[in-house]
Amino acid sequence: MTHKGLAFLTYLKSTAHTREYLSYCYRHEGEEQAKLLAYQNAERFSYGLQFGEEFLLAAKETPFTVKPLLYYYSLTHYLKSCIVTVDPDYPATSKVLAHGLSTRKRKKQHYRFLEDEIRIQPHGLFPYAAQSLFQITTFPNKVSMDQLLQPLDFMRPIYRFKEKHTAPSPLFPELAAAFAVLYNLSMLVRYEGEWWGEMVQLRDREDFVFIHHFLDSMPERVYELTSSWLKNQSPF
To answer: What would the pLDDT profile of 33-79 be if each residue is shown by its tens digit?
Structure first.
C-alpha cells in the first residue's frame, strides 16, 4: 500500500476528521443538511473502516483455507463505508443488505473455478455499490471468474503464462470485480469444503495458482482501492 493511501485511512480514524470529510461529501452531493448528516453518520462510517481493517489484519494470521471469508467481510465493510459517503440514508431498505450475487452452491462434476459463473441480482450490496460508487446501471446476467480476473492488472503477470492469453476489457472497476470474486471464493469455503480442501492440500488443479495469487494480493489491493476511492471524493 502506498504511504499516501495509508496516511489517508489513518487520517479518517479521527471522528473530527470523519465529520469534516463527510460534510464535504454531502455538500458535494447537494445535501442541504450536510453538517447534520455528517454528524449522524460519522461513527457508522468510521466503524466500517475499522472493521474492514481488522478483518484484513486477522486474515494475515489466519490459515489460507479461511482467508477468503475474512477478505470478503473486510471488503464488505469498506464498501458500505464508501456508500455512506454518497448515500447518507444507506441502508434505506432491507433489499440492499443482501449480497446482490448468487452462485450454484453445489458445483458440477469436474468443477473449475475459472469457468464458474455468478449471477448478478437486481437488489443487494453488489449492484447497489456498483451504481452508487461507479454509476453502473446495467449488468450482464452472469459473469465468469475468468472474465473478472483476467483484466485485473495484478493478475496479468500470472495469466501471461497461459497459452494464447489476451486480456479482455474489464466488466467492472477493480473494487467491484474483487468483491464479486471474493464472494464466490467465500461460498466455496462455506459450501464446497471437500473441493476447497483438496485444492489447497493437493495443489493439482490449475485453479490453485490463480486463486493463490489473487488472495495474496488482496490486503494491499483492498487498502489501496478503498483509500483511492475515498480520496477521490475529498478535497484533501
So the answer is: 999 999 999 999 999 999 999 999 999 899 999 999 999 999 999 99
Contact between 12 and 21 under an 8 Å Cβ cutoff? The reply is: yes
Task: Assess contact for 206 and 114: CB atoms under 8 A.
Answer: yes
CA distance readout (Å), 81 to 8, 144, 150, 219: 14, 27, 27, 17
Q: What is the DSSP string of 164-192?
A: T--PPPPSS-HHHHHHHHHHHHHHHHHH-
Distance between CA atoms of residues 128 and 94, nearest Å: 12
Instruction: With CA atoms as reference, report the closest residue to 212 among 185, 194, 187, 190.
Output: 185
Closest by CA to 107, choosing from 166, 190, 37, is 190
Q: CA 221: distance to chain centroid?
A: 9
Antiparallel, parallel or unpaired: β 101-102 and 142-144: unpaired
What is the value of pTM for the model shown? Answer: 0.92
Residue pair 183/118 in contact by the 8 Å Cβ criterion: yes
C-alpha cell recorded at residue 92: 434505506
The label of the residue with cell 471437500 reads 194
Q: Shortest CA distance to 131 belongs to which of 120, 147, 119, 118?
A: 120
